[in-house]
Amino acid sequence: MPDNNFAERSEEQVSGAKVIAQALKTQDVEYIFGIVGIPVTEIAIAAQQLGIKYIGMRNEQAACYAASAIGYLTGRPGVCLVVSGPGLIHALGGMANANMNCWYMERCMSPPISMAETSAVCTAASVIRNAKQPLLIIGKGAAYAHAEESIKKLVEQYKLPFLPTPMGKGVVPDNHPCCVGAARSRALQFADVIVLFGARLNWILHFGLPPRYQPDVKFIQVDICAEELGNNVKPAVTLLGNINAVTKQLLEELDKTPWQYPPESKWWKTLREKMKSNEAASKELASKKSLPMNYYTVFYHVQEQLPRDCFVVSEGANTMDIGRTVLQNYRPRHRLDAGTFGTMGVGLGFAIAAAMVAKDRSPGQRVICVEGDSAFGFSGMEVETICRYNLPIILLIVNNNGIYQGFDTDTWKEMLKFRGATAVVPPMCLLPNSHYEQVMTAFGGKGYFVQTPEELQKSLRQSLADTTKPSLINIMIEPQATRKAQDFHWLTRSNM
Amino acid sequence: MPDNNFAERSEEQVSGAKVIAQALKTQDVEYIFGIVGIPVTEIAIAAQQLGIKYIGMRNEQAACYAASAIGYLTGRPGVCLVVSGPGLIHALGGMANANMNCWYMERCMSPPISMAETSAVCTAASVIRNAKQPLLIIGKGAAYAHAEESIKKLVEQYKLPFLPTPMGKGVVPDNHPCCVGAARSRALQFADVIVLFGARLNWILHFGLPPRYQPDVKFIQVDICAEELGNNVKPAVTLLGNINAVTKQLLEELDKTPWQYPPESKWWKTLREKMKSNEAASKELASKKSLPMNYYTVFYHVQEQLPRDCFVVSEGANTMDIGRTVLQNYRPRHRLDAGTFGTMGVGLGFAIAAAMVAKDRSPGQRVICVEGDSAFGFSGMEVETICRYNLPIILLIVNNNGIYQGFDTDTWKEMLKFRGATAVVPPMCLLPNSHYEQVMTAFGGKGYFVQTPEELQKSLRQSLADTTKPSLINIMIEPQATRKAQDFHWLTRSNM
Amino acid sequence: MPDNNFAERSEEQVSGAKVIAQALKTQDVEYIFGIVGIPVTEIAIAAQQLGIKYIGMRNEQAACYAASAIGYLTGRPGVCLVVSGPGLIHALGGMANANMNCWYMERCMSPPISMAETSAVCTAASVIRNAKQPLLIIGKGAAYAHAEESIKKLVEQYKLPFLPTPMGKGVVPDNHPCCVGAARSRALQFADVIVLFGARLNWILHFGLPPRYQPDVKFIQVDICAEELGNNVKPAVTLLGNINAVTKQLLEELDKTPWQYPPESKWWKTLREKMKSNEAASKELASKKSLPMNYYTVFYHVQEQLPRDCFVVSEGANTMDIGRTVLQNYRPRHRLDAGTFGTMGVGLGFAIAAAMVAKDRSPGQRVICVEGDSAFGFSGMEVETICRYNLPIILLIVNNNGIYQGFDTDTWKEMLKFRGATAVVPPMCLLPNSHYEQVMTAFGGKGYFVQTPEELQKSLRQSLADTTKPSLINIMIEPQATRKAQDFHWLTRSNM
Amino acid sequence: MPDNNFAERSEEQVSGAKVIAQALKTQDVEYIFGIVGIPVTEIAIAAQQLGIKYIGMRNEQAACYAASAIGYLTGRPGVCLVVSGPGLIHALGGMANANMNCWYMERCMSPPISMAETSAVCTAASVIRNAKQPLLIIGKGAAYAHAEESIKKLVEQYKLPFLPTPMGKGVVPDNHPCCVGAARSRALQFADVIVLFGARLNWILHFGLPPRYQPDVKFIQVDICAEELGNNVKPAVTLLGNINAVTKQLLEELDKTPWQYPPESKWWKTLREKMKSNEAASKELASKKSLPMNYYTVFYHVQEQLPRDCFVVSEGANTMDIGRTVLQNYRPRHRLDAGTFGTMGVGLGFAIAAAMVAKDRSPGQRVICVEGDSAFGFSGMEVETICRYNLPIILLIVNNNGIYQGFDTDTWKEMLKFRGATAVVPPMCLLPNSHYEQVMTAFGGKGYFVQTPEELQKSLRQSLADTTKPSLINIMIEPQATRKAQDFHWLTRSNM
């Protein structure tokens, strides 16, 4: 740190900082996340004086992830403020490219709206009408375009089955009767027409290829980004334009002739049966009484108490994947997870950003941040940030003592008897029975260490009831939980 | 994380991993630091089977910093193992460039040794003999070249005053009678001949320019790197070559004619007087009884109990700068700090690397890691790593509730009464009275919260005595300590 | 060149080449420009066997520029084929990024068509109707979108004055009565509503800022690229979509209510008067009998004989700028110039690409390539390529013995008497009286060295009449022509 | 070109230019190569006023290649001055990286000299003494280090056979009795000890691997660059240091005990016999009377008249490779060729740089630039630069109508009868019988078109006699010359 003398800051720095802060204000910036250091401190102070909120973070990575979430949540630019040099390099984890001390995570102005070509809309409507086994897939792009009204109307008016992608969850509520999330694999595999609303055929959607799809499935792709159209699979129809505007065009076109996809079709029956059997299987697993708990038991209890209006943030491996199938979203843009790239370390930054938005826009609203124990390690020190700003966050750590899986304390101790830990400890193991909840109590928040369904229920109830401080619930599960899950192969991600 | 199914790892991955692990073994790799994930897990396991030690970290940044320290400490390559994609980007904080899943932090083979040109050595010896006010500056390069024997001989045989740079500390012990560290500014300012042993004229040495130096000071630069010679200042003599080999050449040349720099010269007297007065001033400050403690009180008590053979790792602003002047090093390559770039977040990674080396090479040896409270936040979750491997580390957090400075609890509470924290909390403030020691107890280590000299002494004594587990001492100091320090301008870094 | 043994090419190279060639064919590639070398030769041969045309160039820069023009001219991808290593680096002049031996200069498939939001079209139509002093600016984007029909209809139906940008010339013919190119500065300065069709407010359009524009001018921006909307100036209305489709939407909207911009308005009168006076001034200058000729004399004679259907390619400083105001385009996508970045060296590559297209699609059609003498030097050796393939190109070199300006032979000789050329020759001077036409005769083409209007007329006539070989006319002008031009400040680019 | 108004240059530009020019002067810059454009023109003018020579080039590529040669030739920095933007990208062909308008091609100051470790020198001397079949390889690094005196002494005093690499030619004259270039393959294949003086084991030296070398050959590597030591092959001894200084150390060590490698050893006999038979075969080919000429006939005639002190610059495929074996160098640093990467387009830039140096330092000295016809095309327009500055360059174009090989005129015409040239012309063909010499006469130089040995002899004699202007000799050879050469496989590069 070449210069740390806070008192010696120059006039030039101060006035330069004011100019930058004013520019940020003009761009409608509401939140800055950062780590101060000369000369960035001045900018933060100047921004506060103009009414911009400054959230001091503990590592540049988390600051960047927080800033990147703001644009998605509010449509306004999020700013990450770090010192150049090492700080900037740290921040690269959250940024693809940057060459200044501060930058914007999203466009500043809402872009003009474009619509699809009329004739293409016409073709798309016709393809949908003639579908035998139609399916809508609702992606993050639909959430980003605020297309919830129009897509919900489409679903309900024509009785079309739909699936959300991870961040498309909540555009239409997960508990909607047309949601076929619990029969995901079946729906993908047998659909003959699939309409993608801002969803991309990446690995999460198995690239749109057989055997996960019919070889002759017709894709209708609705997207704002011309470059994304036709990647991996050549769509039957492409509708380039603002997703909300295009969905309205589709509705208008379909409205011209009365029509509805028959709710008692064989396709609907197949899907409903599959959903029923999958849900029964999950429920059975969730109701197991054996200890330590398994993932399903944990998530069913969480789901029972989950407030309808909360933000859900999540990262981890099984924690994120299984949690996503059980925890329901009822509102658009209320789920943030590690997403397409599976980037670890995003959770607490995202949760902090969501909590700032919740606090300012809907007092009383909560952020539930569901972390694997390994995932929590990437940015756990941000708990101090959460306590410092007293943010309405409930952290759940689903703790299996490792990455993918770990050992219980007895096995661990036995293992260490032979030789040193660095020689014999499998690389995916973490310390068993870590008391992560103390990382919360260290900073004045509330911490819980829970091992049974009853303790989990109680701690959740207390956390939700106490709106005066953040809390962390450290939930011990079976360290080898993954293995068991694999016995039920229909439970793994690709078969739901 | 596109694929997290540990059980489904392919034959190809396993055998590919073995090849890589064998290659690392052939390159003499002893330690790998990393975060596993498919397909990197296989490499870690294969490496363990070949006797390479694997240390699982919590964030790629810390893993990289740890790996980068290994080369300096052992002369063998340190390896950082991360998943490509987001993990690799996280790891960039510790690497200037990288394009593979794993790489080496240092050359694999010891390079051939080069020597300086004979005539240049001759000239340098003559310049030294004719110096009125000579000074040696011992840098990190001298430590890296294992030049301790030859440089110590040079210092003692010719009675030359010397100064170490931060990571040059310990090449000759800090308590050596020829060490003039306590009169640093004076020595730099009035020397007429300065010999740089692997030290560079960067900002830490004020670029070698007036008014911190005589305008006509003659620099003799001893360095292995041709590109570094003559940066900023044109040296009078440059000796390009291996620093140990060149120092031996210098000794041989000086030995040809009996000579010694007079220990009772005016220059030595001036320096001794200045050292005496500076030390007295520091001691007075250190002996202050007022609470909360100041930096000097803290460091004097730490120094009193500091084991002679320990590693000292440090990062922070004032914590690192003031600590460096008080805490003494007696061995080469036993101090690691945030160094030239002041990179925050290196401390725990460095400490873990040093602890691995200590544990394996000198059982009983300790690592003292001195962190500012803000600095600790960058990688504090690595405390779990420390506990998991039960590493011989004592963490000292010098806690002033902020970056550079913070507030006490009362001021903090008063401040929050007005509006929300994000609006009024100065950007450099952290939560007051954070119980960082609980981050240690959460994982089974020993934690201390200390507010008085007596508590500090006692906790240090206990930590040093208990060799069964790591500990963390959270030392509360005056939150506005910086300000006070500035009243005594002779205490700031540049005047010691 | 690590391996130049043509006979030793491996089976693998041959079959790999066939795969690549087939892929290019599948992508509808019609032309490849390149420089061969192992292993690229095989690809070129395999491509020829599949009916793709291969044009061997003399420098990778020109090859890339040629390939980049093909997409614009034909809507199909142009390919540049170079050896990796040094060849690839040479080629970077024509490419922003590339990491393979071959790549495409344009998207392969025509993208889906998007339209503007209906309400925005409505607003735009209303703004146009209410304009007092409207102006259309037709840019390269309009040409690229093949919007000539719809824009011409808009101009003619509503009697709106329009200006083309350099590469927008010809979308509506330059000699159209509504074209106000000859009153460019006036039109920009006083318009109250400006509709931009695929034109961007960059330096060529003075960034859309006062004093070149009214401070309260309303811009309506029609563009396919959301990122370009609102740069520099905040538009009153933005119409995001395919430019042709959006223009049709505009026409449809305006058609709803009969309306026309009054052809006898004060605005039209002002513009017509300014055009008249500017044209008179240019004509006077063009008719000057003094020798050497000036730019205007040269271009007026060229314009007199310019075939209506020819391609015009141009690069240079004054040569390009003044030539653009005099030489008329009557067809869309028939002008290619150094454009926004003023890149020197693009001319011959562009001309070769245009000539290939002309030869294949409209036999008899000619390419007129107007080069400054300095500009010609960047890729003059491509004349051999032109002769080798016997391309229908007439090269005009407007030769003032320098960059911006030069010296006549006498001054040059006088100057050299003093000291060596490298000491006294001004950096912008080239050799006076260079016989560039011999670079054409060296390869069997026809060359002319002309110094008078009569010689220019005659050589043009002969070149146009002789369809059996390419020709180059080296036109000597006043070396200090720029200076004279500056006396007539209304002649400079920004005041026309 | 955003602004080309030369007259409007601002005061700021002028004074900024002066500062830059003065900085270049201070750095001892003697030559600047560039292409002007605002704001670079000002810098060029300011530099000329300070006595720096400015050479205006026609393409940035050539400018960069010229600048890069200056450091090698003079030991002082060469500067390339181009406009940022497109010009800078063009210039990348000559630069690995650059981010400013101007930069230096070499270090500014001569670096300090380092020596090898005494014990390593001792070992190396012992290995050399015990060699049965020793060989020295003299590389570009030896030339760069000005090690000609010391290496020649080593060769002569100990009677050691040596081979030069392409740019190591002339460090010891090619006609020295110890030079075994004519038995290159044999020497490499059977040597038991090889000392590399600044030569690297890259593809030119077959990576130092069997079967081109004995599996147990011992390499002694003398190099200034630690990173280069031990690449590809692990050397028996490495001597790190300045090559001249280290060679002197070696001489000193070997001098301690009288010794000489026996000139009548079996190794010397083998090498001499092989050289004799290879030379006889080459001579026979060279003496062939059939027309068109072959490569050997051409080069033997050139060699006969080659001035002892000339610079030889060369690029091309067979032209460079075969020419290198026939054309002899007698002085160090007097050969420049396309080198390790085989970069095409470097020839004229290198020749211009060498000619500037020749003109200024040894008036009367000539530069012979030997180009393949394809190679000439990359930067042929620089002939105007050569004429403008009247540089003492003789360009030889060895013209086989193509890249690697081409067709004669009759075959060419026959071929075109079928379909268009782009469909049937093989990609490696260029126009037959191109009169490249007219590219020289176009600018006032002397041009020759030669088809017989007699014409070649005569044109060479005239070119060398006429010191008033540059000349270009366009030498027609058998278009399929490569094929014939392959009948004599002992003539190819790897068997000489």
Automatic annotation (TrEMBL), chains A, B, C, D:
It holds the Pfam family TPP_enzyme_N. Residues 123-250 form the Thiamine pyrophosphate enzyme central domain. Residues 319-475 form the Thiamine pyrophosphate enzyme TPP-binding domain. This is 2-hydroxyacyl-CoA lyase. One of its GO terms (molecular function) is magnesium ion binding. One of its GO terms (cellular component) is peroxisome. Signal peptide: none annotated. Belongs to the TPP enzyme family. Its cofactor is thiamine diphosphate. Keywords: Lyase, Magnesium, Metal-binding, Thiamine pyrophosphate. It comes from the Eukaryota. It comes from Pongo abelii. It catalyses: an (R)-2-hydroxy-long-chain-fatty acyl-CoA = a long-chain fatty aldehyde + formyl-CoA; 2-hydroxyoctadecanoyl-CoA = heptadecanal + formyl-CoA; a 2-hydroxy-3-methyl fatty acyl-CoA = a 2-methyl-branched fatty aldehyde + formyl-CoA. Residues 15-102 form the Thiamine pyrophosphate enzyme N-terminal TPP-binding domain.
